[in-house]
Amino acid sequence: MSRAGAHRSGVPGARRPRADETVPGELVVEARDLALRFGGVTSLDGVSLRQRRGEILAVIGPNGAGKTSLFNCLTGAYRPQQGSVTFWPQADRPTELVGRRPHAITRLGVARTFQNIRLFPALSALENVQIGTEVRQRYGPVGAILGLPHARRAERDGVRQALSLLDLVGLSHRTHELAASLPYGEQRRLEIARALGTGPSLLLLDEPAAGTNPAEKRDLAGLITRIAGTGVSVLLIEHDMRLVMSVATSVVVLNFGRVIAHGTPGEVQRDPAVIEAYLGVADDTGGDADGADVPAGPGAATRKDVR
Amino acid sequence: MRRRPLLGAIALAAAVTLTAAACGSDSDGGSSADGKKTITIGFQGVLSGDNQQLGLNALYGVRTAIAEVNADTSSPFQLKLVESDDGGSPDQGPTAAQKLIDDSKVVAVVGPMFSGATKASEPAYTQAGLLSVSPSATNPALTTLGFKTFYRVIAPDTVQGKAAADYVATVLQAKKVYSLDDKSEYGTGLSGALEPELKAKGVDVTHDGINPTKDYTSEATKIIAAAPDVLYYSGYYAELALLSKALKDKHFLGKIASGDGSLDPQYVAQAGAAAAEGTYLTCPCGDANTDPKAASFVASFKKVNKGAKPGTYSGEAYDATLALADVFKKLGTDVSRESVAGAFGSVNFQGITKTVAFEPSGEVKGSNVFVYQVKNGAIAVLGNTADLIKS
Amino acid sequence: MSAPPAGQPGPGGQPGPGGAATVPLRTSGNPPGSVDASGSAGSSGSAGGPARPGWHPAVLFTPARLRQLGVLLLVGVLAAIVTGPTGNSDKPLQAAKDSIADVRIVLYLGLAVALWVVLVLGAELRGALERVSAPVRAPIGAAYGRRGGPIVLNLVLLAIAIVAPLVVSTAAQQSMVNDIGIYALLALGLNVVVGYAGLLDLGYIAFFAIGAYTTAYFTSQTAMPWHAPFVLNPFFVFPIALVLAALAGVILGAPTLRLRGDYLAIVTLGFGEIIHLVANNADNITNGARGAFGVPHLSIDLLGIDYKWGIDPLPYYYLLVVIVVGVMIAFGRLERSRIGRSWAAIREDEIAAEATGVATLRMKLLAFAIGASVSGFAGVLFASKQFFNPQSFSLQASFFVVAVVIFGGMGSRLGVVVGAVVLQGLAFYLRDKVPPADRYIYFGAVIVIMMIFRPQGLVPSRRRRREIQLAEEGIGAADSLGVAPTGGQQ
Amino acid sequence: MGFLDQFWQLTIDGLMVGSLYAVIALGYTLVYGVLQLINFAHSEVFMLGSFGGLFAARGLLPDDGSVPGGLASVGLVAVGLGVGAICGGLAAFTLERVAYRPLRRRSAPRLAYLISAIGASLFAVNLAGKEFGRQNVDLPDLFHNGTVFSFFGADVSTQSLVIFAVAVAMLIGLDRLVAGTRLGQGIRAVAQDADTAVLMGVNVERIIIVTFVIGGLLAGAGGFLYAMTFNASYSMGFVPGVKAFTAAVLGGIGNVRGAMLGGLLLGLVESYGGYLFQASYKDVIAFLVLVAILMIRPSGLLGERLGRAA
Predict the structure, then answer these.
(1) What value of ipTM does the predicted structure carry?
(2) Which of A151, C13, C126, C308 would bridge C54 by S-S if both were Cys, CB 3.0 to 4.6 A apart?
(3) CATH number for the domain harbouring residue D275
């Protein structure tokens, strides 16, 4: 991981989250005071954050700082013991997310990718994205079996949308290939396409650049910017500081399950607390809350990584 | 993955085994070498599953009868047997019956054995005009369902139920009876026939049902708590044996009684002589093992069936087969499905369990119900209920 | 499968055709096999290079090879015991002793040795076999692989299904209805649960019972003590049973589908037993063990068509063919719809599916309900065809349907139907060939062997085969039961 | 006669049967703890063990049908337990080798294990039926089964005492083994996290096979107790198997003490239930308990982990 910039000493920046400066109507998501504990391990300890609509917000922090836990709370994979998450699918419709099941949250408009890619490996690229595009479709088994007109129409729409999304992430040439057979970088992009298929207004990307080469990283930065350009807010976990600096409009820094800084990329880079966190963590290689980065599914223990 | 070749070989071996097994047992000799006419009869019964032993009892009885007929030099024909397994279940019944119907040589069938399989199979027999003589299906309704070619050499539950009730109330002088059935078709049929008869005689009846199990511990406690004079178990010997053991362990003071399903030497063997001692068994049949008249049957049964002893339904199956042979003899050269089905109703044959003769409905005539008791570790006949009640 | 690299006892030990034939095969299949069998000799020849060692006894008799022989001989002895005489408890080991002392043991041991030799020479043989069978398999494979191509193959199969009963005995026809037809239908329904949603339902036959008893309730005043105040034609019961069974599926599934996969199996097993026991015990409602006699046969009197089904199995067979084909087409469409894709997603990665907006619980419940409704539908057919009692709904029947689905190939519609044909055909064939009670020994063996060698089934669906392959490589999953119990082998 | 009059007798009956369930349940629990796998064929291990023990004890009984007493009885029970355990262990070992290991090597999907186990179970049941006959096989009394003492008017027989004592001894032995030995450490390590256990040098393959064998030993010994109390038959395994599984789930599968608690509770529930309702609903009660437990508290009464709770 790159910590470029974090070494540079700088002017003491704003240490308090500055989200309170935003006008509420502009928010897309607001988390208040989230706390998440596993047995004796605290992985989130009163985390609050706000994201404006259309913004690309990056969450950074050392390993085990609670970034993925935060994602899991936002998407319903974990239920925090404390705190709330409000999401505005539209500006005038605040919706509480805590307590909803992940698929319901996705349908509200919060989509995500996983740190360790979780595609449907034996399905084709197209089918992977189709599953995303079809979440809002209504037709049921009877429609499917009888081939009723509305079902066929929905089916065609789903395919068309999926194809255009594959085009957006540059995977048109892989349409009918198995997800598992794609190279790593392309799997990352396919996962993004699948998430976009659900029609999100907030997209959560968990280390999208992990394991990709520099050229792919550049492409990825372009892709993220393009996505934000279509009006989708992006919440991004990333270790690659160059990527964060190039795309993020603001940055939140987590350490030990707390927000230690919040601001523009430049401000955060100069924040002494951030610098200390990164330097301090270099010594004890951040093993404070391990396991918290992986959603605790039945497969979590052995499915360390897809590759 | 690594050991696929080895495991592949095992698969192949299994396949070969299957084929070898399939070919291996194909060779049962059709022996009609001495110029005699061969008449084929079928057997449909429960040859697999939990009740397989009952099926084997009957099948061995049929085989014994056939061996006797074939060994008899004066017999004008040889008998040949085709077996068909229905697993005792209604699903398999029609297929098993159809197999015998398809075999155009089969002129009569001994079976089906269980009432459920009978209900499922008889429509096909009726349609084919093929005679079927059940050695063991006791459901009273069977002769009222319009099965035209159905006969049975065993009395329906109602006959046994009534006689057993008479005996229990009059001879055993029970004031309180605990009637327990095994929730099988047979068991519920028998207890259903017994209980009204008992109540009609003013006996206090407690009913309970328990699916066949091995653990009768708490059931024994329940029975003892009810303190009946007689426990009447409607079910088979395997369960009665366990129940008797459990009751003995808990020092049950009443008498144990049961029906024809328990009239089997295995009952004593499995319960142990001590636990089985004194048990009364009713049966609308003469028991081959205890009846001196049938000594020769027991001997030839053992000879034919590698030492196996006759059990529940062996005698009935034997009688049914010999009754068929009797009809064949009378028919002479004209042995066909039609002629056999037509002639069987008027058969009158002295069997070892009873005189085989039928009412027009297909019900066996004037069945006597006998009572047996386990004495000194063996089942001994006490006599006909009618006689026992009179005396 | 690759060549055991040890033996090259072919003509003169030439690396030529044999080697050439096996190398491409290796790429298509699995990682090189028999590492265990002859690891020492493996390195030299495994690359398919020219310098293979010739046939040599030392290579032949490596410990691994000898162990292989030992295992095969054991299997041979076991086979002799399985096919040998039946014993009894007075002399518990007598039957086994007799089987081993019998001359047939020579046959089995001979077979074992022969097999071992074949294995040692396996690669060449396999290569040759593939070459011989390739021309036969290729067109079928190609035909089935192409989109639209399967139509021809399916039509051929359909033609066979139509003609087949005409050339067999009536007993076989009877079996084709009771055993094959009904079980094919049941298997198609269970396939939705097991094959599509990746769940295990061990109480599936309970819904069959619900269908059958529903039929008895509505169509006859005499079959059960408890009956409807009116009488319906069994045809009208089809939709009722469909809905009732689906409803039962939802009622059972809604609280239980949250459970871990193998718990679900146990709960459904318990449910199946409860239904079975209640049917058997409730004398005043279902007529208990005496069963329901007198459900009328199907009949049509509509639009000038007046037909009555009867004892003759053939009309039922053709009705079943129509229904089975209809269900196959319907489920094919379902599989290719968003619903089918959601199920695939759930199987392969439930967490990701949930995160992609798939309502996993609801989709599982849907699979459960659809499977149940097919079972209920089959129950109506069964009840109208013939007498039934609670014995027909035993746990063994549930296990058997599962076996049919797995054997045929989970997730493959054609596969499960073929599974029913083969397994029930085997049962029908064996009924006269081996002691009837021994049939299940062979059944058990076939199932275990199938799981070891061909977990994807006889006619696997392509998607399922890929999933199993990938799952075995540690990518994704192939069912919804959670992680494989490998004890951390990966 | 009211329920309360019989309460203590029913309790004793229930505890006796329950301790048999508990012993079988231990096998399910151990294997589940280590592999997260329900060993569906465990009931057949139990069946084979009970045949083994029964035949061994019967072979040593005097021919004249007399009931031995004193030390001879103790010896016979010990031999039966030992041979039963060995047969069970062997059966479990074979089962693991044939039906599970090939699948584990390929990391086959979970469904495959369940199916494979069902196949193995069918095979074993019917082969046993073929070899030993399909009749029930009775074991004559090994000791005089008198009343040892009475307890609120309920008789405690020698038999129930023997069963209870052996079952408790086995439980304590297993509990010590898992909690206090190196082997137990290995088992717990694998149960908690097999991957990490591998890294720490635990031979997982060996632990798995040992776990199966221990489960088999217990089931085999339990099988002998069962055959001694009731009798043996080829299809005997299924019902106690399901009951024992229920017991394991009830107590918290993967938890050794939970299995014991679950077994005893289930035995009691069945005993009371069979008295209060028609006895044929006894099995329904057991299944209802199972379904209810899984829905209300799927982790069981004492919680799940073998690693933690043992």
Answers:
(1) 0.85
(2) C13
(3) 1.10.3470
